[in-house]
Amino acid sequence: MIKLINLSKQFGNHTAINNVHLTVNAGEIFGFIGPNGAGKTTTIQIMAGLLLPSSGNVLLSDISMNDHPVKAKQLVGYIPDRPFIYEKLTGIEYLRFIGDFYHVSETDFKTRSQELLVQFALMDRRNELIEAYSHGMKQRLIMASALLHDPPIIIVDEPMVGLDPVAIKLVRDIFQQRSAQGTTIFMSTHTLTLAEQICNRVGIIHKGQLIATGTIDELKASAKKGTNNLEDIFFQLTIESTKNE
Amino acid sequence: MKDILTLLRPRYLAIIRQNLSMKKLIGMSFFAGIGMIIWSIIFYVSYRVLTYFKHAENIGDFLSYKLLSMILLTLFSLLIFSAILTALSKLFLSNDLGLVHGLPVASEAIFISRWIESTFDSSWMMLLYTAPAFIAFGIVFDGSFLYYFFVLFSLLLMAIIACGLSSLIIIPIVLILPATRIRSVFVFFGLGMFVLLYVGFRIMQPEKLVNPEGFASIMLYLRTISMPSTPLIPCTWVFDTLKSALEKQYIDTVFHTGLLFSFSSALICLNVIIARWIYFAGYSKSQTAQSRLIEGNNQIIYRLTNKISGPVRAVLIKEVKTFWRDQTQWSQLFLIAALIVIYLYNFSVLPFDQSPMKAYYIENLFSFLNIALAAFVLTAIGARFVFPSISHEGMSFWIIQSSPISIKTYLWIKWLGYLIPLLILSELLIITTNILLHVNPFMKILSVITMLCITPGVVATGIGLGAAYPDFKSENPTQTVTGFGGLMYMFCSSAFFGSVVLLETGPVYIFFKNHFQISFLTNTDILFIVINLLLALLICVMMLFIPMKFGERRLTQTIQNKSQKDKNAVSIQKIEKLSSDPTPETRKGILLSRVNMIKSGNANRYPAMKVFEEIRSCY
User: Fold this and answer.
1) What is the extent of the structural domain holding B57?
2) Å from A224 to nearest chain B CA?
């Protein structure tokens, strides 16, 4: 379970996120959507322990990221939007590197890494240096590494960037399977159809503030007549929010 | 021509729009000061040598011209080597080439603009630092104003020829070999040659040349130095130009300059023709990522380290593997190994037997001074490898941030990873030099213990200040040591080992006085020795923890304030105003340079809003 408690982050005079309060239940896929610069990545970076909040707290399975960052990070599989990884390691070495951080045993590593490499279609290229991988392959490797320690919480920033249609379907299926097994998934995305397809609930963030949360049906019910999909709701809410300022 | 100027514009703009903070200015002033000192030393040495030659009857001018010829040959070889490496990067490996080749610009225009940049980048520093030697020639040989003009003109043409020849060599090779491999091959080849020459030169013991016995076969010597160089290489034409200008035979000077000018023009034309045919094909080929298969996956290293805690093992193995797979690191190791060999060799040939003082005194004095020298070597190695190690994480640093280890633990793991090899190296260095110097057991123990205490502190200073002043965006993190942080590291580390050695001076002096029975140890002496050694130990312990704590705190702050800094940096940039009514050509130029600059990673010099406003104003 994820709890964001009155989370705020300021960069000098600029407020990136303002008093975001949110709970994501265990086994839920939560879609976090918003325009560019709305505060999605900042929120996710705070949740993953990359940034400290200016105020507020993040609880991951009731462990505070502020107070016990190492313990909290053990529970998380974080997938960033841009696949920067150590180019001079091979795919399998990178997985082992990540596995060592999460104390994955030798036996477990062998089984899980094989499974994940096959699942993400990287088995044939596992002994090649990452510098020869394509953008999509690097992204798939990061996803595989984030799942290696079987985390109860997955935090993903733009999961589908750079992936081909086959990989997109694969990731979608994996998220749904993991969610069915009880993994909590927090996902920021610009692909509204994806959010509509797989998310149990979505939150819309605009200019650092969470302006709406709920299931797609709940959001439709609260929106104006004639809004048929998440895209309509998104535009309606963000434009209205801008007008109100 | 317009396209070439437009393509060069981003480089020009990046230079004039540098955001010079006080830190940067201090760093630049410091390095400029060092540069000026080196320049002055080169001038002074050249002037002294030439004046000395001038006074040697009969052979003085021969020697001076031989020296000029050797300088020009060396300079030309270095220019070619440097131009090959720079042109490879500029023409085939730069990050922004993808965007530039996507623009509606002829590939030869891209080639020419990149070639101009590489000619400048590969030659300016070498020309600047050989200039004092040519000025010294002018002064000693009483050269006229025209001599200096021809120096400037012929050296410029020589740089153009060197870069022209380099691009003629690399363009066809890129079609056969991947560009990154060629770079490594040339780096290795060049460094190998350099190391061989350097070691060879040192082992020849040039200091023996001042021994009159070395001039036994003077006729043979004279014949060798007066032999003309081959007329087929451009540096001979430069030599002939300068020699005739010094002798005020200006018709010859113009003829040789003409040779240089016509050859360089022909080379440029040939390069453009070849570039039109095959440059883009070569670039396209260089974009195919080379695939390196690492077979076997080094299971042994994992088995050997399976008792070590997970995060420690992860970071240590990652450091070792990324280090050994990065060829740029090897070349540095290669150089350091050569310097250490020379360092040790110098100790083995020190002429203690010819000294008027007793060898025992001198050997032990040298041994003591050697502690500081070895610590300095350690600091220099740390500057090259330890200090940039945090910046080497680059944009992948998010992996460490999101991993379940604290920044503190991560820094200490890094420290451990560099401490082990550096401790072995420094102890080997000090023990070997002690053996070569035949020092007494007291000095042996003292120097070994001192290095044992200093090394952890030097490594901690490197890691701590490297963490305090990281540059995760740098394409070449090794260069971070030339910044403010690197300067601080060198200063702190030198002050650290300097103070430790200084504190040991008193006890060593008392010990030797006692050893040679000049005086006997009193209680005050013992107290003085204990206090000094304890103070030295205290400094070593402090230098182990303070820089690490400082680095941890600063790195955490840097991560948190990164976005804020980016925003502030953008807001203080002054953006050049556009003319109110740009022509279509100017419009094209502006758009091209803006996009070019954004893509080349200097986008933070352009606030996005301004870019859009400027683009909108064009239409």
Assistant:
1) 32-286
2) 34
Residues B325 and B414 in one domain: yes
Task: Take residue B556 and report the two structure tokens written for it.
Answer: 């955490």
A61-94 burial, b at 16+ Cβ within 10 Å, e below that, comes to: bebebeeebeebbbbbbbbbbbbbbbbbbbbbbb
- DSSP annotation of A132 reads G
Of A50, A102, A129, the CB nearest to B292: A129
> Closest Cα to residue B563, out of A189, A58, A16?
A16
Q: Do A127 and B293 touch (CB under 8 A)?
A: yes
> Does B62 lie in the same domain as B168?
yes
What ipTM goes with this model? 0.78
SS3 A190: coil
Tokens of B456: 């952890």
> Do B554 and B599 lie in a common domain?
no
- The per-residue pLDDT for range B307-356, each reduced to its tens digit, is 777 888 888 888 888 888 776 676 677 767 777 777 777 777 666 665 55
With CA atoms as reference, report the closest residue to B398 among A49, A120, A105: A49
Q: What is the pLDDT of residues B490-542, one digit of tens each?
A: 888 888 988 898 888 888 888 777 776 666 677 888 888 888 889 989 999 99
Q: How many CB atoms lie within 10 A of CB B149?
A: 13
Residue tagged 């600063």 (tokens):
B554
Each residue of B376-422: pLDDT tens digit?
A: 888 888 888 888 888 888 888 888 888 888 888 899 999 998 999 99
Q: pLDDT under 50 in chain B at which residues?
A: 209-212, 215, 566-582, 602-606
Q: Do B311 and A89 touch (CB under 8 A)?
A: no
Does the CB of A84 have a partner CB in chain B at under 8 Å?
yes
Q: Which residue of A has its CA nearest to B287?
A: A132
Question: Quick one: tokens of B222?
Answer: 């004279």
Using the beta-carbon criterion (under 8 Å), do A106 and B306 form an inter-chain contact?
yes
**Burial of B239 from C-beta contacts in 10 A (0-12 / 13-18 / 19+):** buried
Nearest residue on chain B to A97, alpha-carbon basis = B314
Residues B115 and B222 occupy one common structural domain: yes
Domain limits, CATH 3.40.50.300, in chain A: 1-75+152-164+181-245
Please report whether residue B313 resides in a domain: yes
3-state class percentages of chain B: helix first, strand second, coil last, to nearest 5: 85, 0, 15
Which strand ranges, in their side-by-side order, compose the sheet holding A14-24? A14-24, A2-11, A55-60, A63-64
* B326 and B357 assigned to the same domain: yes
Judge contact between B260 and B161, C-beta under 8 A.
Answer: yes
Q: Which CATH class is domain A1-75+152-164+181-245?
A: alpha beta
Q: CB-based contact (8 Å) between A71 and chain B?
A: yes
- Quick check: A16 and A10 in contact, CB under 8 A? yes
Shortest distance between the Cα of A198 and any Cα of chain B, in A, equals 26
Which residue of B297, B321, B403 is in closest CB contact with A73?
Answer: B403
Domain assignment present for B5: no
In angstroms, what CA-CA distances link B186 with A231, B76, B80, B327?
Answer: 56, 16, 11, 11
Residues B467 and B605 grouped into a single domain: no
What total number of domains does chain B contain? Answer: 3
